[in-house]
Amino acid sequence: MSADLLTRLPYAVFLGLMGEETDQGVRVTMPFADSLIGNPMLPALHGGSTAALLEMTAIVQVAATYPRLRLPKPINVTVSYLRTGRPRDTHALARISRAGRRVAHVTAQAWQGDSADPIAALTAHFLLQEENPR
Predict the structure, then answer these.
(1) Nearest to 115, CA basis, from 83, 133, 93, 96
(2) Helix, strand, or coil here: 19?
């Protein structure tokens, strides 16, 4: 159900993101496409597409954990690029580290092949809002 949220997010649709619910949370996959290449000399994935994958994964995880809330709004997002993203499918998984009444702290990692070798990591805070605030 929460993985279906990706079909309602225009940029997620543009990137071709697909979600799958697992026992660890919602795993999001970004299938490789030539349009995602940022450096054709290597070739390497564009950092913006990797960052978008991580941010969308975090949003979907927060929305899955708190389904009565409106779509979480990012307060701040930091992405660390750990290694070059190669031209292949990329996966991401997010974890909510801590959530209060108004703010959630979320971490996420993206990998290709082995999840123990992430290509990028995200740390973010999201504003949690009720569906019908009073």
Answers:
(1) 93
(2) strand
Per-residue pLDDT reduced to its tens digit, 31-89: 999 999 999 998 999 999 999 999 999 999 999 998 877 889 999 999 999 999 999 99
User: pTM of the prediction?
Assistant: 0.92
Contact assessment for residue 60 and residue 26, using Cβ atoms and an 8 Å cutoff: yes
Residue (of 40, 38, 32) closest to 15 by Cα position: 32
Q: Do 79 and 54 form a contact (C-beta atoms < 8 A)?
A: yes
Note if the bond before 43 is cis, omega within 30 degrees: yes
What is the CATH number for 100? Answer: 3.10.129.10
> Is 26 a domain residue?
yes
Residue 117, classed as helix, strand or coil, is coil
Question: Would residue 133 count as lying in a domain?
Answer: no
Structure tokens at 65: 């954990």
Ranges of H-type helices in 22-125? 47-65
Residue 74 CA to its chain's centroid (Å): 12
